């Protein structure tokens, strides 16, 4: 995990997961009703069909809320799909990251969604417990560090990646 | 600034100092002095011992690699807004 590109990819997963969870948890149907699927056509219909395939047959509820603004839904979905697609990190790991993020931020919606996706992608009970264990233990370490206001002294463990931004010029050594 | 004085490694009893050597191996890094968190967790071995074992068990390679788990740990720390 030495390349910065991996961490940029992980950060995108964290961010967009939180964005989906905010709507999934914060806007239940009795607060802002999702658009009825039967009334959705055109561009939004095509997007929802893609979402259904991506999640193995279900359309998570927040996407139906976003369908009230089809161009926004399309762009949000484009960002989310790209963030979660297999790139340098696998979709399987990304679902594990999203599960950890959702659990840590107490998102009932996100925790259930990404737990289901991890299982669908072949993560077994042992793997689930591994991610749960890491999430729990580092929720402990972080709070101990914060309570004692420890200053980071681990920063120089990680090597510095001197590669340019994607497509950027490679500087001479 | 820490709310407690983080003791120098030399202020710990011998068994704790052995644990500091193990933490070097765990991180694969030759620290000039043990990380503050290692020294904090060594303060009370009855807590730090099982806590550390649980962490190592969770972080051991299994269905996910150690590297993948380090990334999970990093995002959990990020969500908890922990700068350490």
Walkthrough of the structure:
The complex is a heterodimer of chains A (173) and B (84). With 173 residues, chain A is mostly helical. Chain A has a single domain, classed as AhpD-like, CATH 1.20.1290.10. Chain A has 7 helices and no strands. In chain A, helix 1 packs across helix 4, helix 5 runs antiparallel to helix 6 and helix 5 packs across helix 7. The longest helix of chain A has 23 residues. Chain A is globular. With 84 residues, chain B is mainly α. Chain B has one domain. Helices cover 58% and strands 0% of the residues of chain B. Classes of the chains: A mainly alpha (173), B mainly alpha (84). The interface between A and B is large, with 45 and 38 residues.
CATH superfamily of chain A: AhpD-like
Helix content of chain A: 55-70%
Indicate the percent of residues in helices of chain B.
55-70%
**CATH topology (fold) name of chain A:** AhpD-like
Number of domains of chain B: 1
Strand content of chain B: under 5%
Q: Count the helices of chain B. How many? A: 4
Structural class of chain B: mainly alpha
Taken together, the total number of domains of chain A comes to: 1
The number of strands of chain B is 0
Mean pLDDT metric of chain B: 92
Oligomer: heterodimer
Note the total helix count of chain A.
7
Distance between the termini of chain A: 23 Å
SSE ordering of chain A:
HHHHHHH
Question: Mind telling me the C-alpha Rg of chain A?
Answer: 19 Å
- Structural Rg of chain B: 14 Å
Morphology call of chain B: globular
């Amino acid at each position: 995990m030495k390349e910065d590109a991996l961490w940029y990819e992980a950060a995108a997963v964290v961010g967009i997961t939180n964005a989906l969870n905010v709507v999934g948890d914060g806007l239940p149907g009795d607060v802002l009703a999702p658009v009825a699927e039967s009334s959705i056509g055109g561009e939004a219909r095509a997007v929802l069909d893609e979402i259904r395939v991506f999640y193995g047959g279900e359309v998570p509820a927040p996407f139906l809320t976003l369908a009230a603004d089809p161009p926004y839904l399309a762009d949000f979905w484009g960002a989310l799909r790209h963030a979660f697609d297999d790139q340098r990190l696998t979709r399987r790991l990304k679902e594990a990251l999203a599960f950890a993020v959702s659990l840590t931020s107490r998102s009932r919606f996100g925790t259930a969604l990404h737990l289901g996706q991890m299982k669908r992608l072949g993560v077994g009970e042992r793997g689930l417990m591994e991610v749960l264990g890491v999430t729990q233990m580092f929720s402990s370490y972080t709070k101990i560090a914060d309570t004692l206001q420890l200053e980071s002294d681990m920063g120089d463990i990680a090597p510095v990646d001197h590669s340019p931004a994607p497509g950027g010029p490679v500087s001479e050594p | 600034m820490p709310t407690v004085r983080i003791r120098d490694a030399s202020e710990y009893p011998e068994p704790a100092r052995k644990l500091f050597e193990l933490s070097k191996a765990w991180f694969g890094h030759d620290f000039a002095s043990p990380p503050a968190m290692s020294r904090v967790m060594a303060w009370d071995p009855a807590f730090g011992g099982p806590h550390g074992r649980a962490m190592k068990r969770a972080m051991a390679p299994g269905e996910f690699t150690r590297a993948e788990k380090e990334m999970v740990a990093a995002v959990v720390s990020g969500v908890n807004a922990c700068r350490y």
